[in-house]
Amino acid sequence: xxxxxxxxxxxxxxxxxxxxxxxxxxxxxxxxxxxxxxxxxxxxxxxxxxxxxxxxxxxxxxxxxxxxxxxxxxxxxxxxxxxxxxxxxxxxxxxxxxxxxxxxxxxxxxxxxxxxxxxxxxxxxxxxxxxxxxxxxxxxxxxxxxxxxxxxxxxxxxxxxxxxxxxxxxxxxxxxxxxxxxxxxxxxxxxxxxxxxxxxxxxxxxxxxxxxxxxxxxxxxxxxxxxxxxxxxxxxxxxxxxxxxxxxxxxxxxxxxxxxxxxxxxxxxxxxxxxxxxxxxxxxxxxxxxxxxxxxxxxxxxxxxxxxxxxxxxxxxxxxxxxxxxxxxxxxxxxxxxxxxxxxxxxxxxxxxxxxxxxxxxxxxxxxxxxxxxxxxxxxxxxxxxxxxxxxxxxxxxxxxxxxxxxxxxxxxxxxxxxxxxxxxxxxxxxxxxxxxxxxxxxxxxxxxxxxxxxxxxxxxxxxxxxxxxxxxxxxxxxxxxxxxxxxxxxxxxxxxxxxxxxxxxxxxxxxxxxxxxxxxxxxxxxxxxxxxxxxxxxxxxxxxxxxxxxxxxxxxxxxxxxxxxxxxxxxxxxxxxxxxxxxxxxxxxxxxxxxxxxxxxxxxxxxxxxxxxxxxxxxxxxxxxxxxxxxxxxxxxxxxxxxxxxxxxxxxxxxxxxxxxxxxxxxxxxxxxxxxxxxxxxxxxxxxxxxxxxxxxxxxxxxxxxxxxxxxxxxxxxxxxxxxxxxxxxxxxxxxxxxxxxxxxxxxxxxxxxxxxxxxxxxxxxxxxxxxxxxxxxxxxxxxxxxxxxxxxxxxxxxxxxxx
Length: 805
Known about the structure:
This protein is α+β, with helices and mostly antiparallel strands. The strands form three sheets. The chain has a six-stranded mixed beta barrel. Strands 14-15-20-17-19-18 form a six-stranded mixed β-barrel. Strands 13-21-12-22 form a four-stranded antiparallel β-sheet. The chain has four domains: 1-46 and 278-413, no CATH class; 54-270, no CATH class; 432-448 and 671-805, no CATH class; 461-670, no CATH class.
C-alpha cells in the first residue's frame, strides 16, 4: 500500500511540477527565515545560563521622575539593604571600567576591565586558573586577571603570577595579582580582562543618590519578589525625601522612586532599563512573529495549491472510494504526500541556513553556531506539526469528495472548492499587504531620522579619546590643553575643541537646577562643560542671546548658555529665559545667569528625547577633570593627508604605545540609529521574501485555475470574444480578492506600526500613502502575474478543447 501511495505521489509531483517546485521553494525560504530568527532569539536567551543558582540572583534597577528607569544603583542601596532585609543573602556592585594598559616589565596589554568587590566570584564563579578567590578583591591593591591577559603579561609562566605586580596607566598604581580566571565560553555579558576595586568605592558608602554601580542581589529561595521590591522602593523614597530637604528641591510625589528586580537569567532581554549590553527583545519578537507569518504564508500556498489541484484528482478519489478505500486511508495518503514535500523543504532550509549564517552573524555582529541538538529536535517537531496543519485541510477536503459527483465530472464547479480557495488566497494577500505597509512606514521613519536636523554640523570633524590619568587627584585636564595646542599646529587642522559630553554617545553627569526667583521650579539637567569655541565649532544656532565671552570673568565664572528644552522645562521661551538666574547642584550656592539660548542638540540619538543641558566654561569647577576627548575639524583640501599627520602625531608624541582610534562625528552619531537601519534592512528583506512567495503561489494557483477554464475560453473565442475581454474575465476575480485583502490588512498594519513608532521620541505622523501604495502595488503585481497566464490562455488550440462538445 505504501509503495502504491508513493508511486501516486511522485506521478502527481511530476504532473504538477511547477506547483511542486514553488511549494518546496516557498517552504524552504519560509523555514530558513524562521530558523535564522529563532536561533538568534535562542542565542539571546542563553546569556547567563551558565551561572550557578542564577534563579536566586537579581539585577537591581531604579526608577525616578528625573531619570526614568536606570540600570544603575547606589552603593548603600545594595549593602544597607543586605543588612536590613532578611530576604537578601548577599550583594554585589560591578562596573565596566573601560580599556587600560597593564604593564609588567617590558610586556603590556591594552585590555578592557571592570571594577567590583570580593563577592564577585561568589556571584559569577569563573573557572579558577590560579590563586584564591577568597579575598581576591578585598582591598584597592589587588587585581584579578583573565587567563588571556595573564599570558600576555607573564608569558608561559602566567600561572606563577600570583603575588607579582602589575602597573596600570590610569593612576600609575601598582596592583598585586591575587587570582587568575578563565572567562566562560558560554554567552555572558561579563567578560572582564581584569578586575580590581573602584578606588572611589569608599567615598560612595553614604551616597544614596549616587547611582554609579550595576547592583545585584542574591536572595533566599522562595523570596516574594514583589514584596521585596516594595520594601526597597519605600527605602529609596525615604532617602529621596532626605536628599530633597538637604539640597532644597521639590520631589515629584506622583512619580516616586521605584526599585525593580530582574532575574539574572532574563537580564539580557527583559531589563526594564538599558541593562548591561541589553538585547533588543522587542525587535526580535517582532521579527519572530513576522517569520511565523512567512512560514504560515508558505503553508497557505501549499494548502491553496493542493485544493486547486482537487479537480485533477477528483476522479482518482471517486474511483478509490468505489473500490473500497476508506476516508481515513485517503487522509493518510494525502498527509504523506504533504509530509514528503515538507521534508524536502526542511532539508533545503537547513542547507540555506548554513549558507546564510556567516552573513547573518556579520550583520548581527554575533557568532551564532548551528550546534544545538535541541534545535533539530524542536524543528523536527515543528516539521511534523506544520505538515499536519498544512496537509490536513486539503487532505480532508479531497477525501470528502462524493464518488457520484466526481465520476460525473461536476466537482470543478463546486462552490465549496471556490470558497475555500478564495478565502485562503485572501489571507495570503492580507499578509502580503501587511508587510508592504509596514515596510514602507519603517523606511519612512528611518529616512526621517537620518535626515532630521540634529542641531549641529559635524562634517569633516573627528573625535579622538585620550587616556585619563591620575585617578587619585582627578583627571589631568592639562593634558587636554596641551594636546589641543599641539594638535592645532598640525597642517590641515582648522580648529580644535572639546567637551565633557560626546555627540552620539549621550550625556552624563546630571544635576538638579533651581530657579533663583522661585526655588519650587526645578529641572533635572545635564552638565555641558565645553571649551571656548565649542558652539561655534559645530555651528550651533542661537535662538536668543549670545555666546560665552571667555574674556569676561563674569561669563566664565557664572555665565551659562542653555538649550531650548532647558528653558521650556522652567516655563520660559528662548527670549524670556534670558537673564534668568538659577542655582545648580554642582556648584553649591553659586548663581548662574542665562546669557543665551541655543537650538536643541541631539546627543543620544533621534529616537531619544533631547535632555535639558547647561553649557558653561569647563575650566571653572571639577567638571574639567572629565575632559577626555579632542574634537578636530580638518580642511577639505587633503583629508587623507591630514589624517595621516594626526595619526603620526598621536602615535609618536601624544600617546605612544596605545592604539590610535578616531571616528568622524557624523558617523559616530549615525551609530545611534544603526539599530533602526538594521530593522529597516531586515523588514525590507522579509517584505521581498513575502512578495516572492505570495506571487509565486499566486502564479501557480492562477495557472491551475485558468487551466480549468480553458474550455470556457475556447467557447468564448469561438463566439467572437476578443483577447482583452477574455483576459479581463480571467483576471477580475483575483483583483477583487486583492482589494478586499488590502482593506482588511489596513487596520492590522496601522496598529502594528503605531506600536512600533511609540519607541521614538521624534517620529513621523502616521502617513496615508503607504496604505494607498500597497493597494496599487498589489493590484499591479496581481494583474501582471495573473494576466500573463490569462494571455497565454487566449492562444490555445480551439479544436483541442471543443472536439468533444
